[in-house]
Amino acid sequence: MILELQPGKLKGCVEAIASKSDAHRALICASFADAPCTLKISTTSKDIEATAEVLRSFGADIDQTDNLYKVVPVKAKTLKCTADCNESGSTLRFLLPVAAAVGGEVLFTGQGRLPERPMTELCRTLEENGVSFNQHGKNFLPLTVSGKLTGRDFALPGNVSSQYISGLLFASAISGGGTIRLTSKLESASYVEITRHVLEKFGIKTEAAADSYKVLENQKLISPGSYTVEGDWSCSAFWLCAKFMGSNVSVSNLDSDSPQGDKAVAEILKDFAASKECAVDCSDIPDLVPPLAVAACARKSVTRFVNAARLRLKESDRIESVANMINNLGGKIETTQDSITIFGKGSLKGGKVSSQNDHRIVMAAAVASTISENPVIIDGAEAVQKSYPSFFQDFNKLGGAFNVISLR
């Protein structure tokens, strides 16, 4: 789908959509708890539905009525199924270790760029603990996992994906305990804290040290009966950046005490307003880079995004896709293997942007229209379905004007 967005400020209030991070984790815990649980998830997305569908393939009964998900846990002692993760990295990296913990044989498949995204270290540590893998092509997916975990001691680097650690925490909770040892500094540590927070809500105690995480032995997941998924800071960041750029917008349903690391956007935007040159460490907040890059264009100064190498492993190579977006809209940007530097001019000219099938590039380009002199055209705008299907309805609600050029 190709959209043409007209320049102009936004005005009004939107409610934060449900946190994708919280929803993934709650669905997994509920599916392996001791009793049914009702989850309140105010909005859904392709990624959330991918996790729900894989859990259904595992044997969970997940019945959705409006914003309520009634989850009856998996009863099977072993698994034999196909698990289509669509384009969701969280779904794959969380549920591959879970499948290993339950045992059996599961064929994992995926779409888009997911089959190419790294899995080597996660598979290696699972193999060291008794699980077998069979790749069915040149990419990581399709991939069959067979057997059952025989060990509970995992070692892997922390600078590839925090989702590996979260997946192993879920597996350890299901299999009766375990220790995850980090062989390098952990990045995106806040996402592991979200996992620990949700596990605690479902009765699982964990311990964290400087270089390890531990799930205590002889515990089981206990249903709290009901669970409400909180508002999403990652997607709300686009509206908060629009506010920084001069739009009169606000976002409700955000918890300032949330374990979500992307709540850091609020403090970063304060720094943007108070400082001349700014440096943003991306190691714990990679998903904030697209909206913050656009906000940096509204500053009349230099903004550097450092420790950004993991952005190259997202739905797109986000260092390149952010650079292409800013360049095509008339901004000035320089990149290295692990950094982005933006030379803000206070505004953008407008132009045409390819989404690269990346939901966050679409939303970043959309809010870029609020500081553009001419229209912004987005090719591949349908990518927002991955995390925020109602994004353009909310954009329109706030007064954003756009035309559909093509539905292809």
Write a concise keyword list for the protein shown above:
alpha/beta, 2 domains, four-stranded mixed sheet, 22 strands, 408 residues, 12 helices, UDP-n-acetylglucosamine1-carboxyvinyl-transferase, Chain
Would you spell out the secondary-structure blueprint of this structure?
Layout: E1 2-5, E2 11-15, H1 20-31, E3 37-40, H2 46-58, E4 61-65, E5 68-72, E6 79-84, H3 89-102, E7 104-109, H4 120-127, E8 132-135, E9 143-147, E10 153-156, H5 162-175, E11 178-182, H6 189-201, E12 206-209, E13 212-215, E14 226-228, H7 233-244, E15 248-252, H8 265-274, E16 278-281, H9 289-297, E17 302-306, H10 318-328, E18 333-336, E19 339-343, E20 351-354, H11 359-368, E21 376-379, H12 391-397, E22 402-406
Parallel strand pairs: 2-15, 3-14, 6-7, 10-11, 16-17, 20-21
Antiparallel strand pairs: 1-21, 1-22, 3-5, 4-5, 7-9, 8-9, 11-13, 12-13, 17-19, 18-19
Helix content: 25-40%
Uncertain regions: pLDDT < 50 for 5+ in a row?
none
Overall radius of gyration: 21 Å
Structural class comes to alpha/beta
Beta-strand share of residues: 15-25%
Spatial ordering of strands, largest sheet: 20-21-1-22
| Helical stretch tally | 12
Return the CATH topology of the largest domain. UDP-n-acetylglucosamine1-carboxyvinyl-transferase, Chain
Q: Oligomeric status of the shown chains?
A: single chain
